[in-house]
Design goal:
UDP-N-acetylmuramoyl-L-alanine:D-glutamate ligase, globular, four-stranded mixed sheet, 39% helix, alpha/beta
Amino acid sequence: MQIAALGECMIELSGAPLRKTYGGDTLNTAVYLARLLAGGAHAVHYLTALGQDNLSDELLAAWQAEGINTARVVRLAARQPGLYLVETDAAGERRFHYWRNDSAARAWFASGIDFATLLAGLDAVYLSGITLALFPHSERTHLIAALRAFKAAGGVIWFDNNYRPALWSPAAAREAYPQLYALADVALLTEDDDIAVFGPADADTMLQRALAAGAAEVVIKRGSLPCLIANAQQRHEVAPAAVSRVVDTCAAGDSFAAGYLAARLHGLALPAAAAQGHLLAGTVIQHPGAIMPQAAMPALP
């Protein structure tokens, strides 16, 4: 399967003293998917734009070293990657500061992308609420129309509801999210993000909302609480193992998505796939930054 993640990756500054790495929600998932699927029949692509500067060269080389196919990464002159700074408290919770408005990815998302060409030959597309928010409204409409055509032609769509209020309003997200649920073969919803967009609700209400909109399979991510998974035939709750020391919760949800999706691609049932998502996320949060060392990766069964 030819899998592509669509979004933006940025330079990450974190730690004390500061260290320079990289991260971005869909890129984080792409890295962990590429690691978990390495050596098999699946390939992972990343769809984004970078500049023609040294920082962009470093990002491209790092992604290629992770086994990500970068042939569809656009390079724009006079643009650079976005930047974010992470502050982490004693419990591992993080606060972000962004410098991304003039990034290469933002410029590309506003440029009128030829989605038919971009998506040609792909079997699955993974994107997030952050991806949607980075597109101007008119271009977001074109993206969703292209995803409908991709789905109608047999493509698989995975959607994560990652929501950042600094990027767009709850009203704008409420307009867009049901359209993605209607296309999603798997919808991965973080409970707090769903509440931020749709208002207070319990997890079962969230499940039913996404299923009613058309999602084939829905996962509600709830941090250290059991996640909920459902499709038209079954519903499960799967608890994560306790983590004794949380260092950094960056990429917890992104890595859960990678573990879950990789497990489903390997034919694991819903509860077993959720357990793999929890295992990977629980390992990631014991390391600083969004991308933990390859040596720390747990293997799929």
